[in-house]
Amino acid sequence: MKIILFDHLGCHAAVLAGSYLGGIIDLEPTAREILALPVFGFYESLLPGTSFYIGHDKLGNEIYTLGVGSEAKIMSISARDISRILGVKEHFKIIDVSAYNTPLVRLFIYIGLLKPFNRMVRYFCAQMLRGCIPELSLLLKQELKE
Amino acid sequence: MIFIYNCYGGSHSSVTAAAIHLGLLPETRIANNRELLNTPYYDAQVAEDHGRVRFMGTDKQGNTVFISSKRNLGGRYEKIMREVINIVGADGRKLIFIDTMPYVNLWMVIGGFLSRRLGYYKIGRGIILYGTRQSYFKFIHLVQLVKKGDLAGL
C-alpha cells in the first residue's frame, strides 16, 4: 500500500506525520531532530503540487507527502475518482494532515519565503509542530485502521 | 484519451465545454438558455460535490469526457493530480486536463456566486446564462483546439 499525506506544501505537518509513521522520529522529537529531516520546510514558493518520498513503515507501505494548498478535501476526492477512472489496482490511502499546519505555522511559511528568515522560520515551525505529534499519531492510527 | 474539463465549481464553464465536445450543445452557433439548462450538471453542483470527477459522456472517437472542479488551484490541479497518478503508479499519459477558467467572464463569476454559493437561483441563473452565452464562442474555440490536439496553448 502507498500512504499519501496531504498538507499545504507537503513539507511541514505531512513530513512529521510521514517520518513518525516511518519510524524516523518518535512521539517526542526535539526541534533539532525535526530540522534534520531532509525535506522538512523544503520549499521555494507557495505553489502546491510537490511530492516527497519519506520512506516506508514497518509493514512495507511506502510513505509520500504531497502539497495540495488549502484544498486537501477536494483533492482527496479528485485523486480517488481519477484513480478509479484509470483503474488503479494498487491500494493507496490518503491522509489529510493540513489542519496541523496552524495559522501561525502558515504565517511563518509565508515569512520563510524571504531568504534571510528561512532558517529561523524552519526552527519556529519545528518548535510549533513538535507538540502536535502525539495528536498526529492518533489520527494516523485511526486513519490506517479504517 | 480521457478528457477532464475543469473549472472552479464544475458547474458552468467546464460543463459547457464538455457538452460542446460531446455534441450535446451546438458547435456552430450560441446555445440558447433552454439548451444550456438542459445540459447535465449545468448549474447543479453544490459545494459538497467539489472535487468529484463526473462522467459526461463518450465522444465520436470513443474518448471519454469528464468534468471536475478545483476551486482556486488553477493550473496546480493538473500538477497535483499527476503527482498522485505517479505515486500510485498509474499511466497518466492518456489523461488530458483542460482548464476552462481563462474563458470565464465576470458575469459567470457573479452569476455562479449568486446561484451556487448564495442560493439565489433565479437571479444567479439569468446572469450565468448571459455570461455563458457571452463566452460561448470561446468555449467552442477551446473545444476545437482540444479535438485538434493542439493543447500547447491551453
Write up this protein.
The complex is a heterodimer of chains A (146) and B (154). Chain A has helices at residues 13-21, 31-35, 72-86, 103-111, 118-130, 133-145; strands spanning 2-7, 51-56, 62-67, 92-96. Chain A has 146 residues and is α/β, with parallel strands linked by helices. Chain A has a 4-stranded mixed β-sheet with strand order 2-3-1-4, with helices on both faces. In chain A, strand 2 (51-56) and strand 3 form a beta hairpin. In chain A, helix 4 runs antiparallel to helix 5 (118-130). Chain A starts with a strand and ends with a helix. The mean pLDDT of chain A is 89. Chain B has 154 residues and is of the alpha/beta class. The chains are: A alpha/beta (146), B alpha/beta (154). At the A-B interface, strand 3 and helix 3 of A face strand 3 and helix 3 of B.
The rough form of chain B would be described as globular
- Topology, number of strands of chain A: 4
- The helix-and-strand class of chain A reads alpha/beta
Q: Strand content of the residues of chain A, in percent?
A: 15-25%
- Main sheet of chain A? 4 strands, mixed
Distance separating the two termini of chain A:
14 Å
Shape of chain A: globular
* Order of helix and strand elements from N to C terminus of chain A: EHHEEHEHHH
- Pairing-aware structural class of the strands and helices of chain B? alpha/beta
How many strands of chain B? 4
Radius of gyration of chain A: 15 Å
* Largest interface, counted by CB within 8 Å of the partner chain's CB: A-B, 30 and 30 residues
